[in-house]
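Narrative progress, year one. The postdoctoral researcher (J.K.) led the effort to move from monomer predictions toward full complexes, under supervision of the PI. The following entry was the first complex the group processed end to end, covering 296 residues in total.
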Amino acid sequence: MPKPDPSLVDGLFQLSFVLLARLSRIAAEHDLSVVQVRLLGILRDREPGMLELARHLELEKSSLSGLVDRAEKRGLVERIPSPSDRRAATIRVTAQGRKLSRVIAEAVTAEVDALVHVLPEADRKRLAVLVERVCASSATLGAASRTR
Amino acid sequence: MPKPDPSLVDGLFQLSFVLLARLSRIAAEHDLSVVQVRLLGILRDREPGMLELARHLELEKSSLSGLVDRAEKRGLVERIPSPSDRRAATIRVTAQGRKLSRVIAEAVTAEVDALVHVLPEADRKRLAVLVERVCASSATLGAASRTR
DNA sequence: TATTGTTATACTCTATAACTATA
DNA sequence: TATAGTTATAGAGTATAACAATA
């Protein structure tokens, strides 16, 4: 009977809320939302179109228009018209956006890193491996992504 | 030099987004938002006033009025006037709210449990312990909570 | 016809500031 | 005066549906 105690699941969600709250607070200190931070993060090594971006963020394309509008208005991203398809554009992070993204990432990493440093080196390594495996299983087991 | 590779932090955030996306999808299937689910969760074993509820959710009290309004309109919670203080009220989850909360919690737990079952029993136990410790360190190191 | 993206509309969520009523 | 809570207002984020322009 796979009727396991939910303490692991509860713990994982508790940790998720802690991490997200911290990300949210740090982002807000720079007048950004979590979604905007994610947007900039995705653009770090990609120059996707609106549809691809929507897929990455799991949002409707119409939701992206406003999201990108606001980011563009702040000079964080640019719409680059596609030369081959006059309907399409790709979204590119600006130097300013990249910088802001980096500042936030560093602050968040420093803070969360301090958190995980209650664990000794060996345990941190082990935790990283375990978390990595669960993430991989999520990609395989889909559901959230498989739905579309 | 504490300049650690950020792979653990990245992994933790990646996992957080996966979990939140799943919670969000399952909640949406029941026409609830993540915040509403958290609200019901907090009320599972408490009957707090608006201010206490705001503190738990890390929201302004004014944000709670609407939140509770919408939950009350759907019959998920009730405002119980305090007999001793005519300004105050406590928020109580209804039987319907409790039931909905349970249904969602079970669906989420089942799904995430399936995810963590890529790990063998021993690793799941270990993961639970490590996650628990990091959560505890968050409570100690504050920052998110210490700010207020 | 199909695809890329935007616009119109409506709702939830959130904060700040001002307010009401009670303590 | 101080506290519990609401209201007014504004803005971000999101979805659905309809639309425009291009393929």
